[in-house]
Amino acid sequence: MTLAHYLTLSGLLFLIGIFGALTRRNIIGILMSIELVFNAANINLAAFNHFRHPGGVAGQAVALFFITIAAAEVVVGLALVLAIYRNTDTVYVEEFSLLKG
Amino acid sequence: MTAIHLIFPEIALCALALALMVADLFVAPKHGRLLYHLAWLASIVTLCLIGLSISDAARYQGLGSLWSVDPMSQFFKMLVLLTTVLSLLMGLEYKDLPPARAGIFVSLLMFASTGMMLLVSSVDLLLTFVSLELISISSFILTGFEKRNPKSSEGAIKYFLFGAFSSAVMAFGISLFYGATGTTKLLGLTQAQTGGPLFILGLLLVLLGFAFKASIAPMHFWVPDAYEGAPTPVTAYLSIAPKIATLAAMLRLFAILLPAKVFDLTTLFVLLSALTMTIGNFTAMFQRNVKRLLAYSSIAQAGYILIGLVSGTVVGMEGVLLYSFIYVAMNIGAFSVAQAVASQSSGADPYGLESFDGLSQRSFGLALAMTFFLLSLAGIPPLAGFMGKFYIFQAAVQSGHIGLAALGLVNSVVSVYYYMAIAYHMFFKPAATEEPLSIGPYLYGGLAVAVAGVIIFGIYPEPLIASVQTSAQYNLP
Predict the structure, then answer these.
(1) Which domain holds residue A35?
(2) CA nearest to B454, candidates B439, B440, B469, B464
(3) Cα separation of B453 and B49, whole Å?
(4) Of residues B153, B164, B224, nearest to A84 (C-beta)
(5) Nearest CA-CA distance, residue A1 and chain B, Å
């Protein structure tokens, strides 16, 4: 296993995540895609830390922060999904059309 | 060197916010207003703590491990806190917020302000990211705070989807940045470190995260929806504080820590700035809802501030600071008037342009104040907005970006059209009702501050310019 393997994996995850976030119509699906992008970043950080900058643990420390923040963000996101589901009975983004212009 | 004492004001604000959140449990809903009063007093206390640091620079300014506390960051921190105070005063007069949750509301507002105060000081991408997320997560909840109002939830969910997406992309950018340089520190990057595709891609993705928060053109789609759905005090807050804090962080990162001679992004910023003003102004012309109109206008204003960043000179930096200060006064004023008008409107859309019909007959003072804010936003002398624009365009011309300055002028002319559309409704349309419009004491106080700022600094800007010139100083790596 070399750095290139890890970077290929994270690059693929990143692209899948971006593609999913842009094409999914279900909010839960979009949330999952966004998580993939976060995880791609974490893989990158760990891999760079191990292969290119083995002196310290800065990369792993940053990855820990990212994991925590991503979790916090999803908690708020799911609460908002619940709120909008109670108001509109749907979780499909194309049906949110009160605000436009 | 940790130098934790440098961020003592942030710690104080955060602790006070936590105290208010706990206090929410012990205060009966009918006394919820008490918490608003405590919150704006707490913000003023923090403002005084920062004022202290200006008088004793040797002790309270310097470099920490992740933060740099210098006159520039102190200036923006004071602006953020001023906005917080004025938004809380607006919140006191806003009727649609659930009274039972006042403590949560004010503490979220203060958490967001803490995030912005850290953001303007940050010299490390890790702190930048964490503080951006502190701002984002708090403002998602604030936007959706009217749980029973579908517009509020919809605005919040759109804001959230864009925000989460851009912060994930920014996280990926930071990971690439780390891969290229071996650190997330932004201090002392040399030309050798800043080459290579990893670094460039990483920095562009980081810029995308900033562009989202500052509502810069390709990432501005959430702005009108989130601003229209959010409770009006939150809209006023979101349209000012995160925007100027992010622009300040961009100023620090792209003009000071990575100046053009180390890593040149000038052409990109010229394009972004031109796109942002043009899209903002030309879309605002077609809006019939005042909150949406002001949302697009705030996108355009971000474009103007970006011109100051493009020039990369000291004058440009002073222009960014000056314009940010004036922007606080004129935007909070415009939103305060909109809130006052909408609170006593019976139309289908309380924020529609029709609600402003004949405002001059119902409350001449309010109509006059709104006209001052709009003229200032359009940049008409002798109001303060003109001074800000003058400074920024001057910086652009001096650094050779004459085309950009000309485009800015054209945009200002276009903006007069839609700003004056509101004035037309206020003065020349017959009112639906003759009933005089009354506004509460706190909104009145906030408006008085805003009007004073817009007029005094337009006619007599010397003290403001002097303070901006002393504030445009920073700690070099």
Answers:
(1) 3-93
(2) B464
(3) 23
(4) B153
(5) 17
Find the closest chain B residue to A20 by CA distance. B165
β-strands B62-63, B68-69: how paired? antiparallel
For residue range B255-311, list pLDDT tens digits in order.
888 877 777 888 999 999 999 999 999 999 999 999 999 999 999 999 999 999 888
* Contact assignment for A45 to B137 by CB distance below 8 Å: no
Find out whether B158 and B225 touch, Cβ atoms under 8 Å.
Answer: yes
Range of the domain at B229: 1-253
Choose one of B229, B253, B277: the last residue of a domain. B253
Task: Please give the single-letter amino acid code of residue B133.
Answer: E
Residue B313 confidence (pLDDT): 84
Residues B349 and B431 in one domain: yes
B175 and B283 assigned to the same domain: no
Would you tell me which residues 189-248 of chain B have a C-beta closer than 8 angstroms to some C-beta of chain A?
224-225, 228-229
Number of domains in chain A: 1
Q: How many CB pairs under 8 A join A and B?
A: 135
Residues B4 and B36 occupy one common structural domain? yes
A13 lies within 8 A of chain B by CB: no
A101 in a structural domain: no
| Interface contact B126-A62, CB threshold 8 A | yes
Q: Are B202 and B177 in contact (CB under 8 A)?
A: yes
Q: Are B472 and B72 in contact (CB under 8 A)?
A: yes
Q: What is the pLDDT of residues B159-187, one digit of tens each?
A: 999 999 999 999 999 999 999 988 888 88
Which residues from A are below 8 Å from B144, CB to CB? 80, 83-84
What is the tally of structural domains in chain B? 2
The pLDDT of residue B41 is above 70 = yes
